[in-house]
Amino acid sequence: MAMDAAVQRATALTSADRAFETLRTQIVEGELAPGAPLAEVEQATRLGVSRTPVREAFARLIAAGLAIERGPRSLVVSHIDAGDVTALFDLRRALDEQAARLAAARAAADPVTARDFADLADRFRAVTPSTLAADDPQRHGYYALVAEFDAALDAALTRSPYLAAAIASTRVHLARVRRLARDDDARLAASAAEHGAIARAIADGDGERAAAATRLHLHEALTSIHRHLPPAAPSSTAAPTKEHA
Question: Can you tell me the distance from the alpha carbon of 111 to that of 73, in angstroms, rounded to the nearest whole number?
């Protein structure tokens, strides 16, 4: 009986993880738009799981700031407004600039790290509007390259686990903001060049140049996002978001 209970619990946790990852991806990529209702029974049916793992997934979405409660048993996808984006980038500026410095220091002492970032710099340099046009509509190929950069940065921060964890917690919101801002290929090509400059500075072991390149990238990204961000939600729907900020 105890073994059966353990197996059932493991299965439930796996279902909850799958439900959470699916819903998070759909929110980040805009398939579930801001303000979209999240009904327990409907989502359980759609995802092919019971209501218990969906309930757990909902709790994790709320904790991640991707959903908010509107009342008893009423949940919706959270909105993102210009103030939220600015606050996110204020945090990213502090975290990412320091991460770039530390990664450059690591590269200066470790040829493997330097080589990895030099390779990333070359691959970012190869990104152009024409190569982006050959990607799929969601530009998964480009964002996979950005994910490789993030992974290399994480690997360079093994001695700074708290910094790495703080950066990781901002990435899901950043990815969602990108989708809401409707990145165009010209901006993505510019972003690739900016990532390339950061990677090259890290590969060269130049921490201050890496931090400066990061600062420029964040400034350009924030400017573009504010230009393309959808209009703010009406106050009747935006107010609850502030309560969960």
Answer: 54
Same domain, yes or no: 190 and 210: yes
Same domain, 110 and 213: yes
Residues paired with residue 76 on neighbouring β-strands, in sequence order: 37, 68
Residues 158 and 201 in one domain: yes
Residues 195-202, mean pLDDT to the nearest whole number? 98
Burial class (CB in 10 A: 0-12, 13-18, 19+), 112: exposed
225, 176 contact by CB (below 8 A): no
Summarize pLDDT for 128-176 with one digit per residue, the tens.
Answer: 999 999 998 888 899 999 999 999 999 999 999 999 999 998 888 888 8
Kindly give, in sequence order, each residue whose CB lies less than 8 Å from that of residue 119, ignoring residues fewer than 6 positions away.
none
Predicted local confidence at residue 211, as pLDDT: 98
| Backbone CA torsion sign across 220, 216, 195, 87 | negative
- Select from 181, 221, 203, 217 the least CA-distant residue to 80: 181
pTM of the predicted model, to two decimals? Answer: 0.77
pLDDT of res. 181: 63
If you ran DSSP here, which 8-state letter would residue 79 be given?
A: P
Q: Which domain holds residue 63?
A: 2-80+232-243
Distance between first and last Cα of the chain: 43
SS3 38: coil
Q: Which two tokens stand for residue 3?
A: 């073994």
Structure tokens belonging to residue 62: 């709320």
For the chain, the residue count is 245
